[in-house]
Amino acid sequence: MKSQIRFSSYLGIDWSGAKAKHHQGLQIAAAMPGVSVPMRVAPPLTKYWSRQQVFDHLSAMADAATGDAPVLVGIDFAFAHPFVDQGEYFPGAENALNSIPASKPASANTLWALVDEVNEGQPDLYGGSMFAHDIWGAYYLSPPDYQADRYASRRRITEIAARNAGRSPSPTFKAIGADNVATGSLAGMRLLHRLRQRMGRRLSVWPFDDIIAGVTDMVLVEIFPSFYFYRLGMVPAKKAAADPAFLGRALAQYDSKAVPADFIANGNDADEADAIIAAAALRFFAKNSGFELPQSLAMAARYEGWIFGVPYQAIDQAMKPSF
Hints:
six-stranded mixed sheet; 6 strands
């Protein structure tokens, strides 16, 4: 089914949760309606983006947009933790909460608010204070001591679907190694909370929010750039995505023109190529059933989120949660 939403532009953001002011790995690419190749978006005044600059840039784009043609933005981090498997984000936390004042999040919005509150004072939306927290830190496998009594390799429904369809990200509570997901996701949750505070109903974070015609100026979705290669049977290992011919073949599968033959990707790990393929995939899936979820998964997705472009059909009927 074709989407009825007409977007003015598509922004793919390869995110970073690192503890620094500016991030070589934080890359942005923009695509316009049609088939033109997505183009890199350079940060203002600095060589690399900071997360605060991303917040400012998205705020300005939303202010310039109209509800009749909102901006579609995809960002590469987990929008929430697993919920469905245990019926909560932090199972067992109520035992500690009896002695330490805190609120246990029971929705994505309250999860984002909690992460932002715990990290109050951390610059550039850094989210690492969660790892040292008396209660929440026990859930994250993180340095320096790697003591995480409540850590478990839990998976969201969308991650199971992504695995079945080609590629799955690491667990959202994992904060170590090259496949560290938690650090970027916590910084991203702070971004979502701050954008929500600033934009109110003009911001729709899918699938947690409805997209309201004439009201929504910006739609945010979770992306997974590696998946957009793997679902095509293409493996972007060892910076393969930076090769213009490789990237061009992938872009063609998303109805996009290719990058120039002399293309050189910015970023430590071909991060610009990830942003480019993400922007093209956003444009492709937005008009090809990207926003469709059956009722059997819609409620679960309101708690856990969904990776844009991952087919819900990849979930076995027996695994679909009942609410």
